[in-house]
Amino acid sequence: MKPAVVIIDMQNDFFQEDPLKSVKPSLTEKINELTDFARLKEIPIIWVRQEYNPDLSDANLHAKKTNRRITIRGTSGVEILSELKRDDKELVIIKKRYSAFFRTDFDEIIQKLGLDTLILAGINTHACVRTTAIDAFQRDIEVIIAKECIGSWNQEHHDISLDYFEKSMSIRLLSNKQLKEIL
Description:
Blueprint: E1 3-8, H1 20-40, E2 45-50, H2 61-66, E3 91-95, H3 106-113, E4 117-123, H4 125-138, E5 142-151, H5 155-169, E6 172-174, H6 176-182
Parallel strand pairs: 1-2, 1-4, 2-3, 4-5, 5-6
Helix pairs in contact: 4-5
């Protein structure tokens, strides 16, 4: 197994309101635990963040139609949470849609690093985590969900997504302890 840890959308703008605001301390603690272990094992860590132009010219249709101005380039809201431990040498993918694969260089990164497994963490389970998992699955890349390291503003859809991962895609949902045992 040649894995990478992929942390999705852990950005300031997404943690301004509950329910994500209230789970931010535990989520960042668990992600830090995961990334500390990954660094110890020399497993690549890839940070994924959403970023739009101030005029929303590159934003998705919903953002354009509703004039929803989050994760805008040049604002503090676009930045990855300061509570997360990061190394400047770790890769960062900037995405414009839910999936980390859509119109990014993620495929090339996976190929260059020889990865065959992605361990996904971050938010939102039902949107960006799910579409990235599906896109990896469609590329025959093994996907593991770091279940203590994901969250969503919509608990019902979070739960539905986890059920879908296990039953329809054979994706393993593992705790940090379980991940340490297999990596």
